[in-house]
Amino acid sequence: GSSNTSSFRIHIGSDSETYSYNGAYPLHIAIENGASLDVVTLLSRFAPDVLMNGDGMGSVPLSLAIKANASSDIVNLLLSVNSSAASVPDHRFNLPLHVACVSSFGRESSKSRRASYCLKTLSALLSAFPKAAHTCNFNGRTPLELAQNGGLFDDDAISLLHENAYNENDSDVQEVPWL
């Protein structure tokens, strides 16, 4: 009989760095399409440099995983392979932390699990790139401002962002060059 499942092959070798029509690598496409942890592991470990490359909009795989509400295992994997990806902005100067602060974290089923996932993700991103907490995006917004305006986060998440945004050791707000 016929099957509704589609399959595709990705040639892993010199073609692993081939762009698609929108500037995305196979890893970008896999993450945007809800690939499993095994697929993301294979692609990210084979070509870890791709974790620092943006797609057509400048989004690195870490930002795409957060936008796609990927599992915390996928987010943690991407950070473990190359934590520097947390410092790569997209074309609107949104760092992965900015993206997380407008995310609904909708994949988790219960409110308490969503809150836990949110805190773990924010903590991991802040650990990887602490300056993200007070870096402004293209619109002059910090991650804290985005989270407060979105109304999606509980008090613990807002407190975590607030503490990091106003850390005594690193408190200068980082502006984008043209603001």
From TrEMBL:
It comes from the Eukaryota. GO terms for molecular function: actin filament binding. This is Uncharacterized protein. The lineage of its organism: Eukaryota, Sar, Stramenopiles, Ochrophyta, Bacillariophyta. InterPro entries: Ankyrin_rpt-contain_sf, Espin/Espin-like. One of its GO terms (biological process) is actin filament bundle assembly. Keywords: ANK repeat, Repeat. The keyword Repeat applies. GO terms for cellular component: cytoplasm.
